[in-house]
Amino acid sequence: MKKVIYLGLLVLCQIGFAQESKDAVNYDRCQFYGGIGAGFNSNYKIEPLIQAAGLPQPSNTVPEFSFGLNFLTKNWSIDEEIASNSYKKTNTNNSITNFNFSFRLRGHYNFVNNEKMQLSGGLNLAYATNDLNIYSNYNQVDLNNLSGSSSSYIRLRNGLLYTGPSIGFGIKKKNNLIARLNMGYEVAILSGKWKSDYANVSNSIRETGQNRFTVGIVVFFGKAKKM
């Protein structure tokens, strides 16, 4: 009888230890990350107007840098992320630059989440701003005669709300994420009207429906913090 009780207690201890180890693997945690990737944009509706004016064609493929915070549980992964990209295109007479800044929420369900890897999928929600600058390469500014300076410069901006599906594949070491591949397809669903802080814009257009594909590698910093 004593042997039966002893064996029973031993089994219970083993079960408890296994459950404790399992909980240690799956406890809620957060971790910072940074990364680099690329954005592949469909044509903006303003692009034919830019091309018709003989200006440099905007770049639709741009490198993107990101920084964020990941919240990871057994079943869910949530990112709060900021990302930015920019480009400059020039022809004989004019130049065009654009600066894009995005804030992105990425909510994923973990299809696989163990000590060595994570495979997840879900939805992105992002708000992005564009700061578009068009100017002549021959602008002249005389500080002694500002009123007589010649300058041709257009600055436009817009903001777009994007949403779309995304997936992620992460590699872990000692149950901490060390790197992850993110891919997403986002479609602009709201706003996108071009405006200016320096001029009245006539015949403005909205960029609703513009879409982009994003891909990037992120690297996680240090050991995850328990939440």
- Cα Rg: 25 Å
Q: Work out the strand percent.
A: over 45%
| Fraction of helical residues | 10-25%
- Physical arrangement of strands within the biggest beta sheet: 1-2-3-4-5-6-7-8
Order of helices and strands: HEHEEEEEEEE
* Form type: elongated
What structural class do the secondary elements suggest? mainly beta
Mean pLDDT, all residues: 87
The profile of the biggest β sheet is:
8 strands, antiparallel, barrel
Distance between the termini: 45 Å
Q: Residue ranges: pLDDT <50 for 5 or more in a row?
A: 1-24
- Total strand count, please? 9
What is the subunit organization of this protein?
single chain
Number of separate helices: 2
Give your account of this protein's structure.
There is one protein chain. The protein is mainly beta and about 230 residues long. The chain has helices at about 1-25, 45-50; strands at about 30-40, 60-70, 75-90, 95-115, 115-135, 155-175, 175-190, 210-220, 225. Strands 1-2-3-4-5-6-7-8 form an 8-stranded antiparallel barrel. A hairpin with a 3-residue loop joins strand 2 (about 60-70) and strand 3 (about 75-90). It is elongated and about 65 Å long. Mean pLDDT is about 85; it is low at about 1-25.
